[in-house]
Amino acid sequence: MLSIGGLTPFTTIDYPGKLAAVVFCQGCPWRCSYCHNQHLLDAGQSGTVTWQEIIRFLEQRRSLLDAVVFSGGEPTMQPTLPEALQAIRRMGFLTGLHTGGPYPQRLAACLSQLDWVGMDLKAPFKLYDQITGVAGSGTLAEQSAELLRASGVSHQFRTTVDPFLLADNRIEKMRLMVEGFGAKLLLQQALLR
Ligand code: SF4
């Protein structure tokens, strides 16, 4: 079903107010300098956990967990994500997604199967390429943010504060950008390596 690079069995911080497991999807099209999940970036690398192992694990946790969050890497890179979300919902769990929004159409296909989305914003959209290393990434992220805003799905916009964002009033620009979506920007600290 999905290529999976890891599983966190229990967390209180990855889905607001819920006890969740986190499934780390393999592969990401972007290359942010501060990424602390480098081992998950290569989509050609085989997963380390099978979908069957995830399902077996969750069957034993039905009464202990509220939600399952798909993170990465970039979960929407994998076209089978909507089926995976549907399967998790059928088991009785809430579904969550962490995304940077590089695939707006695939995000759109997932929204009806999602209970909550945390979208990571990298910079003001015009400056995205400088963080992700990929031309046009800001346009795609903006489309995803618009889709999310209009979806009615509970969501959060977050950003990782790294030295790039500390220059030129960029955080304030992002804060205004998100307030334009009728939401608040959540700031997260970058892990220094
Ligand atoms: S989008 Fe996320 S997973 Fe992909 S390179 Fe950037 S920080 Fe890493």
Automatic annotation (TrEMBL):
<keyword id="KW-0479">Metal-binding</keyword>
<protein>
    <submittedName>
        <fullName>Anaerobic ribonucleoside-triphosphate reductase activating protein</fullName>
    </submittedName>
</protein>
<dbReference type="InterPro" id="IPR058240">
    <property type="entry name" value="rSAM_sf"/>
</dbReference>
<keyword id="KW-0408">Iron</keyword>
<dbReference type="GO" id="GO:0046872">
    <property type="term" value="F:metal ion binding"/>
</dbReference>
<keyword id="KW-0949">S-adenosyl-L-methionine</keyword>
<feature type="domain" description="Radical SAM core">
    <location>
        <begin position="14"/>
        <end position="193"/>
    </location>
</feature>
<dbReference type="InterPro" id="IPR007197">
    <property type="entry name" value="rSAM"/>
</dbReference>
<dbReference type="GO" id="GO:0003824">
    <property type="term" value="F:catalytic activity"/>
</dbReference>
<dbReference type="InterPro" id="IPR034457">
    <property type="entry name" value="Organic_radical-activating"/>
</dbReference>
<dbReference type="Pfam" id="PF04055">
    <property type="entry name" value="Radical_SAM"/>
</dbReference>
<dbReference type="GO" id="GO:0051539">
    <property type="term" value="F:4 iron, 4 sulfur cluster binding"/>
</dbReference>
<keyword id="KW-0411">Iron-sulfur</keyword>
<dbReference type="InterPro" id="IPR013785">
    <property type="entry name" value="Aldolase_TIM"/>
</dbReference>
<dbReference type="InterPro" id="IPR012840">
    <property type="entry name" value="NrdG2"/>
</dbReference>
<keyword id="KW-0004">4Fe-4S</keyword>
